Automatic annotation (TrEMBL):
Belongs to the binding-protein-dependent transport system permease family. HisMQ subfamily. GO terms for cellular component: ATP-binding cassette (ABC) transporter complex. This is Amine acid ABC transporter, permease protein, 3-TM region, His/Glu/Gln/Arg/opine family. The chain crosses the membrane at residues 112-131, 138-155, 167-188, 195-213, 225-253, 265-285, 305-325, 346-368, 398-422. It comes from Microvirga lotononidis. CDD domains: TM_PBP2. The keyword Transmembrane helix applies. Its main location: membrane.
Amino acid sequence: MSTALDMPRFVRAKQVEALPPPNLARGPIAWVRENLFSGPFNTVLTLVVFYLLYVSVPPLVRFLFIDAVWTGSDRAACRADSGGSEAGACWAFIWDKINYFIYGSYTISERWRVDVFFALLAIGVAWLLWLRAPRRDLGAVYFFWIFPVVSYILLTGGNADFGVRFWIGFAIFGALLIALFAFVATLLKTSLRPALIMGGGIVAVIGITLALVDIDFGLAPVPTSLWGGILVTLLVATVGIVVSLPFGIVLALGRRSKLPIIRMASVIFIEFVRGVPLITVLIMANTMLPLFLPGDITVDRLLRPLIGTALFASAYMAEVVRGGLQAMPKGQYEGAMSLGLNYPQMMSLIILPQALRIVIPGIVNTFIGLFKDTSLVAIVGIFDLVKTIEASRIDPNWAAPTIGITGYAFAALFYFIFCFGMSRYSLGVERRLAAGQKR
């Protein structure tokens, strides 16, 4: 019979050797040692990067700043035989052509309208993106409705002069749209009254918008063939971003719909658009779209790439949003349904806010790619910033060796500022939205 002394012990008899305290060193030296020289591979990689920076940065700084020419009125200032430096950037060319780079060939006496457009755009972006801004709901109404209408009237002059035939067609379209909302509500077995209110509200908003565009405000018309430069670049990017996110959400929900017609239509659109390059979409929108319209209806040459770019970005945005929807746990859907929420309420109040938070990096990445892809509209003859630079560098008054490089450096700086700003803002939003989960 075993005694208590013979039983195995599960208590350590000797004291465990104390571990050394963790390294709590802080400061720049500790950060460099931890992140750049933490091991042999990282050390070699850091040294290689430092060598590449040593080789490339000094010549770049010398070209862009030290040997650059900052003042001058023609090519003589940027040539070595006239006191300039052939090896340096010719920023005098940028200052001389800056108005063309901003406005294109927009009528000089009417360029104040473009300045107002830039100011309204800045107000809308700041109001919508500043997380502590007051009444951001009104900011959304301003940015997505008031700003586009006012901008169109300012830039084009308004006075669309639609005519009686157009308004009759719009009345028929409005009736069909309201009937479609009622039909969908019947299929989803939801209340008919909210569907009719939503459909009627959409028709009313579109009608008010078209009525404002149709009014003559006394502004001189400026054809889009005179638009160019930064104006066109920001316009295409803004329209693409504003349209792609809501339309992409609709496509993502349509692809997950239980209705076969809606699901198949969404899948066909997304896969078709994602299967062709943007250049093809722009060329098709520019050359093929007028062929599908009646002979008495023409589509503006700038509106064609706007539509193509927005639809192209919407297809990619739909896949990003669908990834967020698929990442949602099934319990979120079940919890929403247990509260008695119908499908629109469940999506707008429970699912979409969480899904969009998950895919913020993907959404911003799509926006950045869209902003850079605006330069492709030059292929269909639209004078964006890059196209105006190409047109300006062949000016015989500025025929110098470094003109082209300087122009493209200016374009690269412009795109970098906007893309880097979008990237940093998205990181800030991610940290702010993740604060609640960390607590």
